[in-house]
Amino acid sequence: xxxxxxxxxxxxxxxxxxxxxxxxxxxxxxxxxxxxxxxxxxxxxxxxxxxxxxxxxxxxxxxxxxxxxxxxxxxxxxxxxxxxxxxxxxxxxxxxxxxxxxxxxxxxxxxxxxxxxxxxxxxxxxxxxxxxxxxxxxxxxxxxxxxxxxxxxxxxxxxxxxxxxxxxxxxxxxxxxxxxxxxxxxxxxxxxxxxxxxxxxxxxxxxxxxxxxxxxxxxxxxxxxxxxxxxxxxxxx
Length: 237
What we know:
By secondary structure, this protein is mainly α. Helices cover 76% and strands 2% of the residues. The protein is built from ten helices and two strands; from the N terminus they run H-E-E-H-H-H-H-H-H-H-H-H. It has helices at residues 3-28, 48-63, 65-84, 92-101, 107-126, 130-149, 156-170, 176-194, 201-219, 222-236; strands spanning 36-37, 43-44. A hairpin with a 5-residue loop joins strand 1 and strand 2 (43-44). Helix 5 runs parallel beside helix 9 (201-219). The protein is globular and about 45 Å long.
């Protein structure tokens, strides 16, 4: 299979699974208590979250099993905060760590450390050398957190993923397939996200970020990985 064909297959699989799951869930509904208020106070269903997790996980696992692990793990941690952290106004690293210093383990803290652990496990599987494993873990977890942090308005997170994954898609190499998976899933959910018919939530944003981070890890050596990891951590902070 050529690189171009593999990229196309990953993009098509992610888009098809995400889109099909989104339509099925929207038609069936997730039951009472699952609706969420968006930034404008409108009630929307978080159907994009499980759809994106399914689409990115399947497409990424097809070529990178470690990414196939990281995506649902990140989505599950984000989903926990979506459910358990409803109504908690504390967001971001500082608020969560401040609460932890005071002895309160918030759902956001569970999410933060859970995704960090999942990223390190994925990094250990993606790279061979110890330093590379740590860098890869930072990149996967950092990208997941970063995409979630920019998810403050409809379409922001999906749009950011499309823009950031595009260079990886155009490059030859092992990072092209996970980048294609990120683009396929983000593109499939973007119209409903922009139309405020659904929302990604922490689960969907973290899943997109994790596969984006995996694409960066797969497509870069040590120097490139150091630069990307430093950039994503600085942006998140």
